[in-house]
Design goal:
The protein has ten helices and twelve strands. It is about 55% helix and about 15% strand. Pfam families: HAMP, HATPase_c, HisKA.
Length: about 475
Amino acid sequence: MTRRLLVTYLTFALLILVALEVPLGWVYHRGAQRQAADALEHDAEVLAAFVDTALTTGRGEQVHLLAREAAQRLGGQVDVVGAGGRLLSSTHPERHAPGGPGAAPDVRAVLAGRDRVTGRAAGPGTISVAVPVHPGVAARGAVRVSVPTAPTTARVRRFWLLLAAAGIAVLLAAALVAVALARWISRPVRELERATARLPGGPLPPPPTTGPPELRRLAAAFHATAGRVQGLLEAQRAFAGHASHQLKTPLAALRLRLENLEPDVTAGGAAGLRAALAETDRLAGLVESLLALARAERGTLPRERVGLPGAVAGRVEVWAPLAAGRGVGLVADGPADAHVAAVPGAVDQILDNLLANALRAAPAGSAVTVSWRPGPAGDVELHVADRGPGLTDEQRERALDPFWRAPGAAPGGTGLGLALVRTLAEAGGGGAALRPAPGGSGLDAVVTFPAGPAAALSPGRPA
């Protein structure tokens, strides 16, 4: 936002400078040319008056002296022509060439009765003025003075450079003001962004005390709302944790009472007792998942270095009997030196939940593949892929939400397994996603872990 505001302000300032300086420079350019022409006309008229006096008094030899002195003083060339176009004096190096000063168009125009002629008849890079000697109906002659335009051009160029320097100075000053103004405007927005990032669990920064009043009021209102939301989230986590913890003991007592009833239950009621025990186990699993989810969502947890091949081998060994009983194979594949950083116990819980889901979905005769490999961002990817029916794109997006279950899912699940996987992965600095399995059928659950550092080995587990 600051960059966009800065670009906007500087663009506006640049447009104003161009709109002001270009016309100003052009006016100065035209004025300098007009001033130089007027000064040259004045000098030419003064010289013509002296030449007229010399010709009137019969001192024609002074004409050449006057022309040479004027040429030296003005830094140009002077031509003096008589009434019939005869050259009386000239400092021009080509004065005797055919079509010399006497035949020049401006000189002929003056001899024909024009007051003066100003232009570039002497060639490019020069300005010339032709004036009559003794103005009247029949002029006694003409004087043409030609000077280079370099001094005027240099003065105009210096003025353009001055305008450019002034424009750059104004732009720099505008940039400083624009930076301060843009930061002043965007500071409350940046504070809102930081507060939004900390909303899930971190402490909120104080509301901004600088910036536009409207944005400050918005930031203060957001800060109050965010505080209430954080309080509600914390209360919800605390309730889930406390309620789940309080339910553990009654559920354990209920299961014990049901088991004690087993000798007294008739053969006809045995099926109902087994169903009650299974439902009690499902409720106990739900309570354990809620507790694990509440612990994972409660703030930042420490991380440890875990050897991924050893963790996978241990969990595959635990789940292998269940997989064999369902006719499903378990395959583990990956480099032997892969280490990841995760919160304590997270890798085992993630593998247990992913393997439970995969074995529940995999058909008999298929295989569940557990693989790991380096990720594109320097992390480590853990894949658990099955050959089950898979999920649609919309279902894959919702499957990581708490308590969501796929339509037609087998009974016994809680809908918390994948949500717990994502929460544990994110608590360790990673993430979780669901993709179609390679080959087009089934589901590939992908969990990313930060690569484990060389130090801080996982306690109790060889890396």
